[in-house]
Write a structure and sequence with these properties.
Blueprint (H helix, E strand, L loop, with lengths): L5 H31 L4 H7 L2 H19 L8 H17 L3 H12 L7 H31 L5 H30 L5 H22 L8 H7 L2 H10 L2 H32 L10 H43 L1 H21 L3 H18 L2 H7 L7 H28 L2 E3 L5 E3 L3 H19 L3
Antiparallel strand pairs: 1-2
């Protein structure tokens, strides 16, 4: 394999920029959309189960299929582009869920229940998450396919850079336009922007990337199956199980922030009570504050991912010099400190700073665990292995979407005008404990 240069790495990572753009928009705005349709904190957590369930099922399946795919377009590219196109359609439909339900009701003559719009939104979230997983697994598998082994850490750092930049642009576009021009983008416009970013950027990478021929590996790969790959995966080294355990606790901690931060901003920092069961007149009283809190969340995610973008390449370079293990432990501990700070303060200036500090850990999470795992991948099983590894990213989300969401739903307190609110900041305490556990497990991994 020829070594990649800077331009090659940027072209390679551009599709992930689009993927993360779409994923970030789904993270930030799915809460306001579903809450406006009547989703309680626990129900919102159940809807978020779309991500982990599709991740645990779709990525291993698609990863294994991509290992065996033989087509004029290559092994991975059909899944990258197909996932992007279908997800883009669902991204457009999602904020129109209530309108879709009304349209179907008027054209079928069937009287739908009041929660029909929320049901359509939930289906769209499942489709979006499934298609993102369809693209994401084969994308990660492209690194061992086309990048020389000695550049795997740097390649994953460029993916981390794309994640950071895609998230910054996605989260920052609406607040920037509001600040600079006094124009507030609608939620629909932001989702359409995400759909275009996902499909067009993935198309560019699929056009640019040149996958190697399968040749003699083809027949060998056909004899493999998922369960054999799973057994071989854990039989490679005791360190593989440690890396998976590290990833499991890392993603419990990470998702505690990604899933609940917008609600934390709106309800904890901007003191908006729970509005899921109130009359429309009450919702209107808080409408401007909800927008303000949502925009603040977007600004925080922009800064969080901007720091990820800025430190992504330095993290890869430091990992090559000092080792993945040391750099990853320090990065995780920085995220722990940021979480504890956010759990204990309601000062929005401090929260902005702390989200930026947490971005250091995010840059490492997006790169170094994959670089650590890549040393153990058996040639010809790259897609299957990345699919298996994704179970330890998707699985923890089930814990967060159910138990953590249920826990928050039980931690209510009296708010203004006889309404209630929830202690959304408790999610950061759970997240900090899990990230600290992940750092301890990382310490036990042998170099």
């Amino acid at each position: 394999m020829k070594k990649f240069g800077t331009v090659q790495f940027l072209n390679f990572a551009l599709g992930f920029f689009g993927l993360q753009f779409a994923w970030q928009m789904r993270i930030i705005l799915s809460g306001p959309v579903t809450e406006s349709l009547g989703a309680s904190p626990f129900l919102y957590g159940l809807i978020w189960l779309a991500g982990p369930f599709t991740g645990m099922v779709v990525q291993p399946l698609i990863g294994a299929l991509s290992d065996r795919t033989v087509s004029p377009f290559g092994r991975r590219r059909p899944y990258l582009l197909g996932g992007a196109i279908i997800a883009s359609i669902a991204l457009w439909i999602f904020p129109n869920s209530q309108n879709v339900a009304v349209f179907l009701e008027s054209h079928t003559g069937i009287e739908f229940p009041i929660w029909a719009g929320l049901f359509v939104a939930a289906i769209m979230i499942w489709i979006i998450d499934a298609c993102i997983n369809v693209a994401q697994g084969p994308y990660r598998a492209l690194i061992p396919d086309v990048v020389p082994p000695e550049q795997h850490s740097v390649a994953n750092s460029y993916i981390s850079l794309a994640i950071g930049l895609g998230s910054v642009v996605a989260a920052g576009a609406a607040p920037f336009l509001n600040w600079a021009f006094g124009f507030q983008m609608s939620i629909l416009a932001q989702f359409i922007m995400a759909a275009l970013a996902f499909s067009l950027n993935m198309l560019w990478t699929c056009f640019w990337i040149k996958e190697p021929g399968i040749k003699s590996e083809k027949n060998k790969t056909k004899k493999e199956n998922f369960w054999n790959t799973l057994k071989e995966f854990f039989a490679l080294s005791p360190e593989v199980a440690k890396i998976c355990a590290m990833q499991f606790f890392t993603w419990i901690g990470t998702m505690c922030m990604l899933i609940f931060f917008t609600q934390y901003s709106v309800h904890t920092l901007f003191h908006v009570p729970d509005l899921t069961s109130v009359q429309e007149s009450v919702k209107l009283l808080y409408a401007d504050t909800v927008v303000e809190g949502t925009n603040f969340s977007s600004i925080c995610f922009s800064i969080f991912n901007l720091i990820c973008f800025l430190v992504a390449i330095p993290v890869g370079i430091l990992a090559e010099k000092f080792g993945n293990k040391k750099v990853h432990i320090i990065s995780l501990l920085s995220m722990v400190l940021a979480y504890l700070g956010m759990a204990m303060t309601k000062n929005i200036t401090y929260v902005i700073f702390l989200m930026g500090f947490a971005g250091i850990g995010w840059a490492s999470i997006c790169a170094l665990p994959f670089a650590m795992l890549s040393k153990y991948i058996k040639k010809g099983t790259e897609g299957s292995v990345m699919g298996i590894f994704n179970i330890f990213i998707a699985g923890p989300q089930v814990f967060v979407c159910t138990l953590v969401a249920w826990f928050i739903s039980k931690c209510s307190f009296a708010a203004n005008e006889g309404l209630v609110n929830y202690h959304w900041e408790y999610a950061f305490l759970v997240g900090a404990a899990c990230l600290l556990t992940a750092a301890a497990i990382t310490y036990t991994v042998k170099k």
